[in-house]
Design brief:
It is built from 17 helices and seven strands. It has 397 residues and is α/β, with parallel strands linked by helices.
């Protein structure tokens, strides 16, 4: 019996739990060596190795594998079925019962901070290697929709990276919500990227990991350290949670105000694992800014609609399971919010359907359907094949 039954549900956020050598087959030796010597790579590898070694033993155990179905949402990270073993992921999706899954990296989130470095050769090589790794992993099942990472630092390299990603079968283009080092994300020389995505019918996504991080000085409070979900202090805590959507709000507003959304009116954008409680206030704040400054700013005079209306037309967001999605829908509109599981990460919880369902009890049925299915279909465009959008066998209990 699958975890999800009785309705069509598309999952806007799932992950691989890759080993640290996941990019090695896709990088030439000299670049591989340079990547392995970066501080972020070394830090990630050190923190993952013990958990990965233990999980490999578990997945080789027949009894452990026999219980995969009943534990598909309970086992997390490397212990989860299909989290890093390619041949298991399709079966894991069957056990979950979702119609499709957008698939993101874990180990490579943030591109090892190379976008903020002065080594653009390695920055784009790592992104390209990631994109080939992701499309190879997801090639086993059309329901698995691989995301590609596209740095925004160098205009020519960005275009080449995106061209390759689309050619090899990426179904969405992930860009950092953090501003590039030397130019705005709305710079006109990035228009070829947005044009390629629009022409291919693929969405552009922000995802946690590409945001501006908490200023570490906030942790220096004279009190004992606060542990995160994983027992360290590098992931979500109550304080580091707060700035997660800040870069997405600033970048999204800049893209709207500078006319990028209007220049590419058929291009869809998504904010994944960045929460969505912030979206209603962000929409209202942009409307207020547009009203206040329209007399002095020609760019605002040229907007096709109020910023909040542009958001409903082109922008989608995946709430966290602890957020009140019913309130988000009531205040942002039924076009915006999408279901996500964050499988197999701990942050996604072990029963996201129950948590989301509890907050949707007073939400109109049409808006509920949009949350679980239709908004994702709208976001994905050509990235989701027509026969995968509303599979009849999943709509019947």
């Amino acid at each position: 019996m699958p975890y999800a039954e009785g309705r069509i549900i598309h999952d806007a956020d799932s992950h691989l739990m890759e080993p640290s050598d996941c990019l090695d087959p896709y990088l030439e030796a000299r670049l591989r060596e340079r990547l392995h010597q970066t501080r972020k790579f070394i830090d990630l590898k050190t923190r993952q190795q013990a958990a990965l070694d233990a999980a490999r033993e578990n997945h080789a155990d027949a009894d452990f594998r026999a219980a995969a179905n009943e534990n598909v949402m309970l086992r997390k990270n490397y212990d989860a079925h299909g989290s890093f073993l390619k041949d298991d992921r399709s079966e894991a999706l069957d056990y979950m019962g979702f119609a499709s899954q957008l698939v993101f990296t874990t180990f490579c989130l943030g591109n090892f901070e190379l976008d903020q470095s002065d080594d653009m050769e390695l920055c784009y090589a790592a992104a390209s290697a990631h994109n080939r790794m992701m499309t190879d992993f997801c090639a086993t099942d059309r329901r698995l929709l691989p995301t590609a990472y596209i740095p925004l630092e160098d205009f020519a390299r960005t275009r080449a990276c995106a061209e390759e990603a689309i050619r090899i079968g990426a179904k969405a283009l992930m860009v950092p919500s953090k501003c590039p080092q030397n130019h705005s994300p709305s710079h006109v020389d990035l228009d070829p990227l947005w044009a390629m995505a629009q022409e291919a019918g693929l969405p552009v996504l922000f995802h946690v990991g590409g945001e501006q991080k908490l200023n570490p000085a906030y942790k220096e409070n004279g009190l004992p350290p606060v542990k995160d979900f994983h027992g360290g202090d590098d992931n979500f805590t109550s304080v580091s949670y707060m700035p997660i959507p800040e870069a997405a709000m600033q970048t999204g507003a800049t893209l709207i105000f500078d006319g990028v959304f209007d220049r590419f009116p058929n291009l869809k954008w998504g904010a994944i694992e960045l929460g969505a409680n912030w979206v209603p206030g962000w929409m209202r704040a942009m409307d207020s800014a547009a009203h206040a400054f329209v007399r002095n700013e020609e760019r605002l005079q040229k907007l096709s609609a109020k910023p909040s209306e542009i958001v409903r037309r082109q922008f989608r967001a995946a709430p966290y399971p602890h957020e009140d999605v019913g309130w988000i829908i009531a205040n942002a509109g039924e076009e915006v919010a999408m279901f996500s599981s964050d499988f197999p990460h701990i942050e996604g919880g072990r029963n996201p359907l129950k948590r989301f369902g509890n907050s949707l009890q007073d939400t109109p049925a049409r808006a509920v359907d949009r949350f679980y299915c239709d908004n994702f279909i709208d976001l994905m465009g050509e990235g989701l094949a027509a026969d995968l959008r509303r599979p009849a066998h999943l709509a019947v209990a």
